[in-house]
Amino acid sequence: MQTKRVPFTFNRDGYYYFSRRVPSDLVEHYVYPRVVQSLRTKKSSVAKTRALAFAAKLDEHWVHLRLAHCDLPARHLLKQCSQTRPVPNSLVPVPETSMSLSEALNLYVSLKGASKGKTFRAAAERACGYLVEASGLKDLHEYTRADALAFRDALVSRGLAGSSISRIFNSVTAVFNFAISEHAIEIANPFTRVFHDKTAGVVRRLPIPLADIRTVQSYCKQHDDDVRWLIALISDTGLRLAEGAGLLMQDIVLNEQIPYILVRSNNYRGLKTESSERVVPLVGASLWAAKRLAQQSIDSDRPAFHRYNKTGVTNANSASAALNKWLKPHVPKHCTMHSFRHSMRDRLRAVNCPTELIDQIGGWSHDSIGKNYGSGYPLEQLAHFLSKACELR
Predict the structure, then answer these.
(1) Number of Cα atoms under 13 Å in the Cβ half of residue 267
(2) Is a pLDDT exceeding 70 seen at residue 282?
(3) By the 8 A CB rule, do 58 and 20 touch?
(4) What pTM did the predictor assign?
(5) What pLDDT does 81 receive?
(6) How does DSSP classify residue 191?
(7) What residues contact 309, with CB distance under 8 A and at least 6 apart?
(8) Is 60 exceeded by the pLDDT of residue 159?
(9) At 283, is the secondary structure helix, strand, or coil?
(10) How far apart are CA 133 and CA 59, in angstroms?
(11) The 3-state secondary structure of 61-86, one letter per residue
């Protein structure tokens, strides 16, 4: 039977056995979809230590497999030599301590990403996978500036937008910096300050005009279903789509003098930044949507929008695709669900809302240490300015 005190184990005849399912994308490398091995002990403390060690080694091996066998477009067109580990350059000085890219990646996601969602790991693995495709799988000290420039050129040749290239480079740079810092590796990070056109292929997100917001809100009330409730909820709060789609019913508070939403991490989705955790008053169409949600028979610890949380994790990409498709005919070109967030900032500016208060409502990061002092503006003031923004015509 599975044991809860000792992770990754089950107990049979008093002995502990390690057991872990092979990830679906790596099953092809195994003859059986589960790794099972005797830990050769009856003591739970010993079993726990050995099981965690086994799990860590498997994580590192799986990262290596993903990097070495990264399934990227046109892989079959690569020259054979680019798919294998290159011969180390004997002219590159070897530091006293170093590690492979796969080890650095595993260290980064296991420590830095311990409290973050699956998208954090996925983004880091994807970025390092692109690097392996461009320059091969090496130890950190073997990567050179030439590799960094080749990496940039490979990303540009894929037709990626400048903003996407920036995110990929930021992930790779972070993996290198973290490993260098943690293990005091005496090398320079070759991926820092690599130039690329950050504006290439970038379409500027525009705010939705106020008249179109009113039209969309009117249509939401006519359709009156959970999809339109989510759109209405975001329209007068400026929430990020993932924040709204992953709300729990207990985070919607209507039985107070000023109704509000608690934006906080839960088991279905995390938050983008520390400053994203906040309280947002409910006014206008957002209050209407919250009341309609409250009328449904949904347990308080369940997601408010079940359709985007069926797998136990908020599927913000699915929500984005569906909502943007419906929204497209009702708003100007290049406006999306995220445009409500841009519009909210403009609407709050229009009613002379202080910048710090705008940042607090939207969960935007502060740009100075002083703004982090104190408890911030009270709920009454947040509601005052949000109400004025919703009354704009």
Answers:
(1) 6
(2) yes
(3) yes
(4) 0.65
(5) 40
(6) T
(7) 245, 246, 268, 303, 315
(8) yes
(9) coil
(10) 21
(11) HHHHHHHHCCCCCCHHHCCHHHHCCC
